[in-house]
UniProtKB/TrEMBL annotation:
Residues reported in the UniProt entry to bind Mn(2+) 1: 248, 260
Lineage: Bacteria, Pseudomonadati, Planctomycetota, Planctomycetia, Planctomycetales
PROSITE patterns named in the record: ATP_GRASP
Entries under SUPFAM superfamilies matching the protein: Glutathione synthetase ATP-binding domain-like
Keyword presence, Thylakoid: no
The enzyme's E.C. designation: 6.3.2.-
Binding locations of Mn(2+) 2: 260, 262
InterPro entries per the UniProt record, alphabetical: ATP-grasp (IPR011761), ATP-grasp_RimK-type (IPR013651), ATP_grasp_subdomain_1 (IPR013815), RimK (IPR023533), Rimk_N (IPR041107), Rp_bS6_RimK/Lys_biosynth_LsyX (IPR004666)
Pfam families referenced in this protein's UniProt entry, alphabetically: RimK, Rimk_N
Name of protein: Probable alpha-L-glutamate ligase
Binding-site list for Mg(2+) 2: 260, 262
Keyword tRNA processing found: no
This protein's UniProt keywords: ATP-binding, Ligase, Magnesium, Manganese, Metal-binding, Nucleotide-binding, Protein biosynthesis
GO MF assignments: ATP binding; metal ion binding; ribosomal S6-glutamic acid ligase activity
Length: 301
C-alpha cells in the first residue's frame, strides 16, 4: 500500500512514528508538506501536485493538519478524496471537529455528556451568559485556541465579566463553560481508532494549573476507563465522523463530559504513558479499511 502522511514537519514525533510503523509493515510511505501541495481542480482528472510532482498512485492519506492550517489542509485532503484515495480522516470530519461550537452542538444533539456551555455575541448579554452556566468559577475559551492557549479560569463574577468583555472587545468568539471542580485539574485522553478505544491516559495539570495539557507541564499516566467513559469516547468520534480521534473527557459528578474531540491527536504522550503502539494501530486500521485491490487500481492511472 502507498501511503502519504500530510504533515508540515517530518521530524515531529507523531509523523516519524506513523512513517516508521507503516514501513515496518511493508508499506511504501512518504511525508508530504500539505502547504506545498497545489491542486488541479478539473472534473475529469483531479490532481494533487507536490513540488512539481504529480502525486498519483496513492492508496491512503493520513492527515496531520495543524489547527491554524485547517482550511488549506482540508482542501488538500478533499482533493485526494476526489481522486479516490482513502483518507484516514475525511476532510469534512476534520472541519466538523475543528469548529468547537459546531462540535459541541452535534455532541449535544446526540445526547453525549457535556459541561454546561454558553455562547453569545453581544457584550450586553454577559450577565445572562454567566448565570446560564451556573455563575463563577467558570471557564472562558477562545473558539480558535489550541493546546490550552486562550483558556481562562475566572474564579469570581467580576473576573469573569472582565475576561469576557476583553475577549469580546477584540471580536474574539468565545465559549463560556461551567468549571468542573471535581475533576481536580485532570482529564482523560481517549485515543479512538476504527471505532474502539486503543489507549487511554489521565493527564494531571501542574501544581496550581487547571489545564491538564502536557505542553503546559502536565503529567500523564495510564488509566482504566469505565464502560461509560469508553462508550462516550467512541460515540463522540463517531458523531464527528472521525476514524482516528483523541477524545478528551472530564470525570464530573454527573458522569463523563466531553471537552474536545481532536482530529490530529499527538502520539508521543499517549504512547509514552501507555506503552501502546498507537501508530501501529492506525496503520492496522488502514490495512483493513482501504478497499481490497485499491493499490492495483491506482497503478493503472
Amino acid at each position: 500500500m502507498k501511503i502519504a502522511i500530510l504533515s508540515r514537519d517530518g521530524g515531529l514525533y507523531s509523523t516519524r512514528r506513523l512513517r516508521d510503523a507503516a514501513r515496518q509493515r511493508g508499506h511504501e510511505v512518504r511525508v508530504v508538506d500539505y502547504l506545498r501541495c497545489y491542486m488541479d481542480i478539473t472534473s475529469h482528472r483531479p490532481r494533487v501536485l507536490y513540488q512539481g510532482e504529480d502525486l498519483v498512485g496513492m492508496d491512503a492519506v493520513i492527515p496531520r493538519i495543524g489547527a491554524s492550517q485547517t482550511f488549506y489542509g482540508t482542501a488538500v485532503v478533499r482533493q485526494f478524496e476526489m481522486m479516490g484515495v482513502f483518507p484516514c480522516n475525511e476532510s469534512q470530519a476534520i472541519s466538523r471537529s475543528r469548529d468547537k461550537l459546531r462540535c459541541l452542538q452535534l455532541l449535544s444533539r446526540a445526547g453525549i455528556g457535556l459541561p454546561v456551555t454558553g455562547f453569545s455575541n453581544s457584550a450586553k448579554d454577559i450577565g445572562g451568559l454567566i448565570d446560564l452556566v451556573g455563575g463563577a468559577p467558570l471557564v472562558v475559551k477562545l473558539l480558535e485556541g489550541t493546546q490550552g492557549v486562550g483558556v481562562v479560569l475566572a474564579e469570581n463574577r467580576k473576573a469573569a465579566e472582565a475576561v469576557i468583555e476583553a475577549f469580546r472587545g477584540l471580536n474574539a468568539n468565545i465559549l463560556v463553560q461551567e468549571y468542573i471542580k471535581e475533576a481536580g485539574g485532570a482529564d482523560l485522553r481517549c485515543f479512538v481508532v476504527g471505532g474502539r478505544v486503543v489507549a487511554s491516559m489521565k493527564r494531571q495539570g501542574a501544581e496550581g494549573e487547571f489545564r491538564s495539557n502536557l505542553h503546559r507541564g502536565g503529567r500523564a499516566e495510564k488509566v482504566k476507563l469505565t464502560p461509560e467513559e469508553r462508550s462516550t469516547a467512541v460515540r463522540s468520534a463517531k458523531e464527528m465522523g472521525l476514524n482516528v480521534a483523541g477524545v478528551d473527557l472530564l470525570r464530573s459528578n454527573h458522569g463523563p463530559v466531553v471537552m474536545e474531540v481532536n482530529s490530529s491527536p499527538g502520539l508521543e504522550g499517549i504512547e509514552g504513558a501507555t506503552n501502546v503502539d498507537v501508530a501501529g494501530k492506525i496503520i492496522e486500521y488502514l490495512e483493513k479499511a482501504v478497499p481490497t485491490g485499491n493499490a492495483k487500481d491506482k497503478s493503472k492511472g
